[in-house]
């Protein structure tokens, strides 16, 4: 049964190969000073930077640049961004890039006018934002995180090796996001498939929880089937617009707060993956792929009915003459074969994890209680060992 909920998502989406025109409709709604946030330079290589500067100038905006957002943005970078935003009293933040750029923009949006250390207040203590929030718009160039239409913001403290994600409320969601699948064509293959698995993981984190019948599970099965189909095409031909556009939209819906409504959720793959990220700075989607199979094989007996359903409805396992365990196991075997086929990292050693890190990674893993099995510290260590 669906639980009670309130649903609202304030992000306006401009989608398609002409989506950038939407910027001309949005910019007049905000003041003169635009803080342009981007990463390490990919937007310059694909010509998007020049296009955006031109549109900002045509709209008579003063541009304050904040480049150099790294994958897995750090708290030190956040402090720099807050200073730039506050000193210049910016009216709008325009984030152009992948999830890291969008996440960082949200953290700056919420933190620039915060009177105390935002890491303590908004990431360690997870307090509600009670200061002025700077509005944000996003132009997305890499898919996977869903950051373009949610309140998620993940920041890494390199000193303490903590990677913490928080979900801001809808005041910090992007006011608008521009989604042109063509911008994603240039994403390197490793990042591209990591993003694909991030999408799958977001769906599975919300799917593998609960015993009830709810609409969300049916939607999620459809989203994953679409992802599996389109990702196979995209791996062979990254410039296939149909596949890339379907994946982009699937990615947004996987984590734009719709399918989580009225149901319980797991999120332990992400908790373990983030703890690994805090130690290694590894690509987010690959931290998830490396631990997923050991994790799901371990919890399968506790949520057998759902793993059986997953095997049949997503992986087309024929249930005839098989026990529930055999069906569920075959589903996970097919998932593993797909993961290897598209080139995902399947163990944490390949991400730079060494034996001496396991205890620290397990200690930095937040243990959540929404999944089929509440893990103990020792069980997390066992899963990490199985992922080596
Ligand atoms: O920095 P540039 O030069 O732009 O290069 C980036 C970066 O090196 C490159 N890239 C992006 N678009 C490109 C491109 N290269 C060529 N052509 C393009 N069009 O890709 C690299 C990775 O970018 P990044 O933004 O780090 O990737 P992603 O979108 O996967 O974001 C990862 C971050 O998002 C967090 C992750 O933890 C990680 O910190 N997450 C955010 C979530 C949310 N907001 O809800 C949820 C997720 O679970 C995730 O935790
Ligand atoms: Zn993720």
Relative helix content? 40-55%
Bound molecules: 5,6-dihydroxy-NADP, zinc ion
**Annotated CATH architecture of the largest domain:** Up-down Bundle
Reported for the largest beta sheet, the result is:
6 strands, parallel
Rg result: 21 Å
Helix- and strand-based class? alpha/beta
CATH class of the largest domain: Mainly Alpha
Shape: globular
Uncertain runs with pLDDT below 50, 5 residues or more? none
Tally of DSSP β-strands:
8
Cα distance, first to last residue? Answer: 39 Å
Strand ordering within the main sheet: 1-8-5-4-2-3
Q: Give me the strand/helix succession.
A: EHEHHEHEHHEEEEHHHHHHHHH
Strand content: 5-15%
**Mean pLDDT across every amino acid position:** 97
Number of domains: 2
Total helices: the number is: 15
CATH superfamily of the largest domain: Dehydroquinate synthase-like - alpha domain
CATH topology of the largest domain: Dehydroquinate synthase-like, alpha domain
GO molecular function, one term: metal ion binding
Domain Alcohol dehydrogenase iron-type/glycerol dehydrogenase GldA: 10-181
Protein name: Iron-containing alcohol dehydrogenase
Pfam families: ADH_Fe_C (PF25137), Fe-ADH (PF00465)
């Amino acid at each position: 049964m669906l639980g009670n909920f309130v649903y609202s998502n304030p992000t306006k989406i401009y989608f398609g190969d002409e989506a950038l025109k939407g910027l001309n409709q949005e910019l007049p709604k905000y003041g003169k000073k635009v803080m342009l946030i981007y990463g390490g330079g990919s937007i310059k290589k694909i010509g998007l930077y020049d296009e955006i500067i031109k549109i900002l100038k045509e709209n008579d905006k003063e541009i304050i640049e904040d480049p150099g957002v790294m994958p897995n943005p750090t708290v030190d970078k956040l402090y720099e961004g807050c200073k730039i935003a506050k000193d210049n009293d910016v009216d709008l933040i325009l984030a152009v890039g992948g999830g890291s750029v969008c996440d960082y923009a949200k953290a700056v949006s919420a933190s620039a006018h915060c009177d105390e250390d935002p890491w303590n207040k908004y990431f360690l203590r997870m307090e509600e934002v009670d200061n002025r929030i700077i509005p944000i718009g996003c132009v997305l160039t890499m898919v996977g995180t869903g950051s373009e239409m949610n309140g998620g913001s993940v920041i890494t403290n390199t000193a303490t090796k903590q990677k913490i994600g928080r979900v801001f409320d809808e005041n910090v969601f992007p006011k608008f996001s521009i989604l042109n699948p063509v911008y994603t064509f240039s994403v390197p293959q490793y990042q591209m498939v990591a993003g694909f698995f991030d999408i799958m993981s977001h769906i599975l984190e919300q799917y593998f929880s609960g015993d009830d019948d709810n609409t969300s599970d049916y939607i999620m099965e459809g989203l994953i089937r679409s992802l599996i189909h389109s990702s196979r095409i995209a791996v062979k031909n990254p410039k296939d617009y149909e596949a890339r556009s379907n994946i982009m939209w699937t990615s947004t819906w996987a984590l734009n707060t719709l399918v989580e409504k009225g149901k319980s959720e797991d999120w332990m793959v992400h908790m373990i993956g983030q703890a690994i990220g805090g130690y290694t700075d590894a690509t987010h989607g690959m931290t998830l792929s490396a631990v997923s199979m050991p994790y799901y094989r371990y919890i399968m007996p506790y949520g057998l009915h759902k793993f059986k359903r997953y095997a049949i409805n997503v992986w087309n396992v024929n249930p005839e003459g098989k026990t529930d365990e055999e069906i569920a196991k075959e589903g996970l075997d097919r998932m593993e074969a797909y993961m290897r086929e598209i080139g995902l990292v399947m163990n944490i050693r390949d991400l730079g994890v060494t034996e001496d890190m396991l205890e620290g990674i397990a200690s930095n893993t937040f243990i959540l209680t929404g999944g089929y099995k509440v893990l103990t510290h020792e069980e997390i260590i066992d899963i990490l060992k199985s992922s080596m």
